[in-house]
Automatic annotation (TrEMBL), chain A:
Annotated protein name in UniProt: Spore germination protein (Amino acid permease)
Family: Belongs to the amino acid-polyamine-organocation (APC) superfamily. Spore germination protein (SGP) (TC 2.A.3.9) family.
GO cellular component, one term: membrane
Organism annotation: Cytobacillus firmus (Bacillus firmus)
Keywords: Germination, Membrane, Transmembrane, Transmembrane helix, Transport
Transmembrane segments: 7-28, 40-61, 81-101, 107-133, 145-166, 186-205, 217-241, 271-293, 305-322, 334-357
Cleavable signal peptide: none
UniProtKB/TrEMBL annotation, chain B:
Main location: membrane
Stretches assigned to the Spore germination GerAC-like C-terminal domain: 195-361
Organism, as annotated: Cytobacillus firmus
NCBIfam families recorded: spore_ger_x_C (TIGR02887)
Record protein name field: Ger(X)C family germination protein
Membrane topology qualifier: Lipid-anchor
Domain Spore germination protein N-terminal: 21-181
């Protein structure tokens, strides 16, 4: 079977939506909560740390351009330990995906359709995710490019039209010391560390040369980091520490923008890009989960497990948190630590070290990726 | 697979139907709300709503209702409103002075929590919101009028900033809040903005009006217009009027080694000659210089009056000097934070005002 190809722009858009799909709305709030007016510095720190994760991802790609994460696990650690890591990855994916689903559904419900039953969002998102996963990587990649343009437009419009509203100075700098800034940077690192997910689609990157892939990964991360920093600066500059008081500060910023009669009620744009971004983010996570499970169970096709696994994930998501307070607590305090100490930082680091030490003894041809 | 796709599309189409849609002609659009406190700890809310009808200008209607909390009162509205109350188009929240004395942060909570509410709603203080809203109804004016008046008073008269819900909360989250809120009073039958109310944190203290209110405008606002009338240079009993804009403002605040809070304010104004009852010929530079000097003195006088009021009469810093100190010198702020009231009372405030007359109008 021919493997679908992904070009640089599509790769960049996948990374972009992977991170910004949900973080654009949520990340200023979670960071300001911890770091206060220094939140934007946290974002810069987070971006630098995320670049390290990006380098690790590229290091793996450089050595295993034809394999995906599950196969790399097996090649590096042998069958038993490799499979344990593999199953761990599937569980991590399901957990993360369920938080993404929960965010998608509860925030859409909370802001835009407060009177609609949450179950309806779960059903609609379920159907879309199942459908997109079934049509495969190629369609997903192309849709990502479209939605990336939408997200960039929303971002730019909010930034440009927000300029007249800026009135709170971002001072005093580091008044509480460096600790809150570092603590605040955990959340952006965990978000941007999700770039690790593209290790699942290495075999699709057939058309590019390695150097360009490296540039694409790192540049996209830098652009995302700039986006995070700017949106946090604007949120702080417009709302001040009032941002701490609001559930989704960026949404409130969009609601405040009013330039003449034309540029009003930009919250509609936010809704647009939020729904599109979150749908694609879910779909990509789910695609990777299904692919990983298929690889681990040595199945010929992944289609048969799409629907059962989707039921499992959506049910976990539905019962995961009871309200938005629990959700923001989980996203700000628990998830960053969970993810950074597992597949977003620690395990890739162990992999890279193992690879560095054992690079001559690793078998090159034990297994091959089949889509 | 195809069948699944078809089912998905059908479902999406079905789900987007209008089971609980909200048509405009099925809503009571709330355009202004007033809050008062009743003797037995109940709230009275007075709302003005618009009922859109086909091919007709919507008429404002005023109703009042009681409740233990504002939400409850809002809920009680359903007992006599024929349509669902819709808050997204609310323009004004009027708070009675008595209520504001208890702290406005808790009273405004309802308006913050409701995601339907817009944060650019005007918050204003008045003696009796009830009277104002009934008067608006009599004149068939909606709450939007009040918001527009507040905007106009700020931009053309220099009467403070438009205190929107967002601005109020932004200020309350500063290290040292310095809240001022638009004050509305009833002049005969017309609602009119006459100054602004000052707050200690979120508790209402008093309202400043007249010259003092204008002095605050000079000290705080940028790029807004206001006017100054003073005596002619040659004839004492005749007046000359200038239109002013503040184009540049620089404030420094620090605590010196002796523990004295020093504030240096430097303001630059552009002046346009608007009306003169004397000296038809102002073309020579000497006269212009003299006028500029006299203007400086006059503005300083007005500003000093406000500063004196703030330091001696109410002893509250409503200019935000404390916050400025915190922003630039957080360590110094920590030293004086506990006794800020006394430190501010004895603060040394120096003003430097520079006015330039840039236009003398179409008359030569």
């Amino acid at each position: 079977m021919k493997i679908a190809e992904i070009n640089y722009l599509q790769l960049a858009s996948i990374i972009f939506i992977q991170i910004l799909g949900t973080s654009l709305l949520i990340i200023p709030g979670t960071v300001v909560e911890v770091a206060g007016v220094d939140g934007w510095i946290s974002q810069i720190v987070g971006t630098i740390m995320a670049l390290i994760v990006g380098m690790m991802v590229f290091y793996l790609y450089n050595n295993f351009p034809q394999d995906n994460l599950i196969i790399i696990f097996e090649k590096l650690f042998g069958k038993i330990i490799g499979n344990i890591f593999g199953f761990g990855f599937v569980i991590y994916c399901i957990l993360s995906l369920s938080t993404v689903i929960k965010q998608g559904c509860s925030i859409t419900g909370y802001i835009f359709l407060p009177e609609t039953s949450p179950l309806i969002f779960f059903i609609v998102f379920f159907l879309i995710v199942v459908y997109i996963t079934k049509v495969g990587m190629n369609a997903l990649a192309r849709t990502n490019v479209l939605v990336m343009l939408l997200l960039i437009t929303t971002f730019l419009v909010i930034i440009i039209t927000g300029v007249p509203l800026l009135n709170v100075p971002l001072k005093p700098l580091l008044s509480e010391g460096l600790f809150p800034v570092l603590k605040g940077s955990l959340s952006p690192i965990s978000w941007m560390g999700q770039v690790i997910l593209i290790t699942m689609i290495f075999p699709y990157l057939t058309s590019g040369n390695k150097k360009n892939i490296k540039t694409t990964i790192l540049m996209t991360l830098i652009v995302v980091g700039i986006d995070h920093t700017l949106i946090t600066m604007f949120t702080l500059g417009i709302l001040g520490l009032e941002a701490k008081d609001l559930l989704i500060p960026v949404y409130s910023v969009a609601k405040l923008i009013e330039i003449d009669l034309i540029w009003r009620r930009l919250d509609v744009m936010i809704m647009f890009s939020w729904v599109a971004g979150v749908t694609l983010k879910m779909s990509f996570w789910y695609f990777c989960t299904v692919l990983a499970l298929k690889q681990l169970l040595h199945l010929n096709k992944y289609e048969p497990i799409i629907i059962p696994l989707a039921f499992l994930t959506f049910v976990i998501a539905y019962y995961s948190t009871n309200n938005t307070v629990e959700l923001t607590f989980y996203l700000g305090k628990i998830y960053p630590i969970l993810s950074l100490f597992s597949y977003e930082f620690t395990i890739p680091l162990i992999m890279c070290l193992t690879l560095f030490i054992r690079r001559k003894r690793i078998s090159k041809d034990s297994k091959e990726f089949t889509p | 697979m195809k069948s699944l796709g078809v089912i998905a599309i059908i479902l999406v189409l079905l789900l987007s139907s209008c089971t609980n849609s909200e048509e405009v002609d099925k809503l009571s659009l709330i355009s202004a709300v007033g809050l008062e406190k009743m003797p037995d700890n109940e709230y009275k809310i007075i709302i003005q709503y618009l009922m859109p009808k086909k091919d007709q200008e919507p008429l404002p209607i005023t109703k009042e209702v009681d409740g233990l909390s504002i939400y409850e009162a809002n809920n009680n509205l359903n007992e006599f409103l024929p349509r669902k109350p819709y808050w997204s188009h609310n323009f004004v929240i009027l708070l009675s002075e008595e209520l504001a004395k208890e702290g406005i942060r808790s009273q405004l909570d309802f308006f913050r929590r409701n995601p339907e509410m817009r944060q650019d709603t005007l918050v204003a203080i008045t003696e009796s919101p009830r009277k104002i809203l009934y008067n608006l109804q009599k004149q068939q004016l909606s709450g939007q009028t009040l918001k527009l008046i507040a905007r106009q008073a700020s931009a053309r008269k220099g009467l403070g900033e438009v205190s929107t819900l967002h601005k109020v909360y932004q200020n309350l989250f500063f290290k040292k809040p310095f809240l001022t809120i638009t004050h509305i009073f009833l002049d005969g039958e017309n609602p009119r903005i006459d100054g602004f109310s000052i707050f200690d944190k979120d508790k209402y203290i008093t309202t400043i009006k007249g010259d003092e209110a204008r002095g605050l405008g000079f000290l705080k606002l940028k790029n807004k217009y206001s006017s100054v009338t003073m005596n002619c240079l040659d004839k004492e009993n005749r007046q000359i009027t200038f239109n002013l804009t503040n184009i540049h403002k620089k404030t420094n605040a620090y605590v010196n080694d002796l523990g004295i809070f020093e504030i240096r304010l430097s303001l630059e104004f552009e002046a346009f000659l608007a009306e003169s009852h004397c000296m038809r010929n102002i073309s020579d530079t000497d006269t212009i210089k003299k006028l500029e000097k006299a203007l400086n003195k006059k503005i300083k006088e007005l500003a000093k009056k406000t500063i004196e009021h703030s330091q001696q009469n109410v002893e509250i810093d409503y200019f935000g000097f404390g916050n400025l100190l915190y922003l630039n010198h957080p360590k110094k702020w920590k030293e004086i934070e506990g006794e800020y009231e006394t430190v501010y009372k004895n603060a040394d405030i120096k003003l430097k005002i520079n006015t330039k007359i840039v236009q003398t109008g179409a008359v030569n």
